[in-house]
Design goal:
With 219 residues, this protein is mostly beta strands. The chain is built from 1 helix and 16 strands. The protein has one helix spanning 5-26; strands at 33-43, 50-53, 58-65, 68-78, 83-90, 93-99, 104-111, 114-119, 129-149, 153-155, 157-159, 162-174, 179-188, 191-196, 199-205, 209-218. The strands form 2 sheets. Strands 1-4-5-8-9-12-13-16 form an 8-stranded antiparallel beta barrel. A 3-stranded antiparallel β-sheet has the order 11-14-15, with no helix packed on it. Strand 12 (162-174) and strand 13 form a beta hairpin. The relative contact order is 0.21.
């Protein structure tokens, strides 16, 4: 049976609407809530400054802070097609550190909640690759500091909490209307004033690059 021009037009319209609905389902847009879950690695800069352990007459001890990986996740919201906000959280990262090439060693835990304002250049489109950039602020809380000095034994060490600026790059690779693969990196300005045996010892410059890989879910 030959289709009438009207039925052909209706069928074409239905197909076009289905394609439009499908592409709109993938499009990032205003009002989207999302979460990203994965593993993050905190890699401090190679130059972490130096400390003075006045209590044991040791000065200019070069500081070296090791890296660590832990489970991390984010929560976010898009105000417009192209602008959003995201909060990064994680379980504590445990960093080993050495002073003076091994004259002293220790460890500390830190939590780095980070808030960024993000820009999505392809937001509002049906692109399957959705890159983004962000700027924001980081708060780092240190805890469980421990240190041992060669020939002396355990000493008290304390790192002050830190506030600093953050830059971010990331990308979502869309799988369907809810799920995506995600990769992201942050540069964080983390500088902490340190005390050894209760005496000011100087500043530790951690300034890490944080790299995270995982999955994203859009509500």
């Amino acid at each position: 049976m030959r289709k009438s021009p009207l039925s052909t037009l209706i069928a074409a319209g239905v197909a076009a609407a289905a394609v439009t609905a499908s592409t709109q389902a993938f499009a990032y847009g205003a009002g989207d809530f999302f979460t990203r879950i994965g593993v993050a690695k905190v890699d401090p800069t190679s130059d972490n400054g130096s400390l003075d352990a006045v209590a044991i007459d040791a000065y200019g001890l070069e500081t070296d802070v090791g890296d660590d990986s832990a489970f991390a996740f984010t929560l976010g919201y898009r105000f417009t097609d192209k602008l959003g906000v995201e909060l990064l959280a994680a379980e504590p990262f445990d960093h080993d550190f050495t002073l003076g090439g091994g004259a002293a060693s220790g460890s500390t835990d830190h939590l780095p909640p980070t808030l960024t304002l993000q820009y999505y250049p392809l937001g509002g489109t049906d692109a399957y690759v959705q890159p983004y950039v962000g700027v924001g602020v980081n708060y780092t809380r240190f805890s469980d500091e421990k240190a041992t000095v060669a020939g002396v034994g355990d000493v008290d060490v304390e790192f002050d909490d830190s506030w600093g600026a953050v830059g971010q790059l990331g990308v979502d690779l869309l799988i369907d209307e809810h799920w995506a693969l995600n990769g992201a990196a942050w540069y964080m300005d983390i500088d902490s004033d340190a005390k050894i045996a209760g005496i000011d010892a100087g500043k530790v410059e951690i300034d890490p690059v944080v790299v995270m890989g995982g999955i994203s879910y859009r509500f």
